UniProtKB/TrEMBL annotation:
Location relative to the cell: Cytoplasm
A GO MF term: tubulin binding
GO CC aspect terms: cytoplasm; microtubule
Sequence segments annotated as region (Disordered): 132-178
Keyword list, A-Z: Cytoplasm
Protein's recorded name: Tubulin polymerization-promoting protein family member 3
PANTHER family: P25 ALPHA-RELATED, TUBULIN POLYMERIZATION-PROMOTING PROTEIN FAMILY MEMBER 2
InterPro entries linked: EF-hand-dom_pair, TPP/p25
């Protein structure tokens, strides 16, 4: 029996890891239905034959309080008591429960199938400022670095010259010549 109490403590550690998974406000004392289903899936409690995701949802609903959306560790243990004989068909509850705790003990949420950051050629092409044309081209300097506010706003030219005049700044030279 000492072995099963150790695995219950390890199962509680796993319970806490899954309880806070994906929820910044979670304390680790209660687990919601989605994370309970994830725990069952990641720890291979759901095997697809004897125990399905539907079974896990039904057991979760059965052990939680009527208006609650989460279950405590004690209710989690009740849920495992319900799931154990189903998961290990042919074994009675006394044999199946330690085996179920063994599946859960020491495990944490797996990040398998989590979406990776896409680094495709299309993204590179869209973010390459050398390929920009028209007014968008004006937002970057020669090195491709953004000009910031100067690139987004039209700043009035108060130099006194018209826009396309090529001899800008040459007035002083012409006055000296005369």
């Amino acid at each position: 029996m000492a072995e099963s109490s150790a695995s219950i403590a390890e199962a509680e550690v796993s319970f806490r890891k899954f309880a806070v998974h994906g929820d910044t406000k979670a304390t680790g004392k209660e687990i919601n239905g989605k994370n309970f289903a994830k725990l069952c899936k990641d720890c291979k409690v759901i095997d697809g034959k004897n125990v399905t995701a539907t079974d896990v949802d039904i057991v979760f609903t059965k052990v939680k309080a009527k208006t609650a959306r989460v279950i405590t560790f004690e209710q989690f243990n009740q849920a495992l008591v319900e799931l154990a004989p189903k998961r290990f068909a042919g074994k009675d509850q006394q044999e199946a429960l330690p085996l179920l705790y063994g599946l859960i003990a020491g495990k944490g949420p797996a990040n398998v199938g989590v979406t990776k950051v896409a680094k495709a050629a299309a993204v590179d092409r869209l973010t390459d400022s050398t390929k920009y044309t028209g007014s968008h081209k004006e937002r970057f300097d020669e090195s491709g670095k953004g000009k910031g506010k100067a690139g987004r706003e039209d700043r009035p030219d108060t130099s006194g010259y018209v826009g396309a005049y090529k001899g800008q700044g040459s007035y002083e030279d012409k006055v000296k010549e005369a």
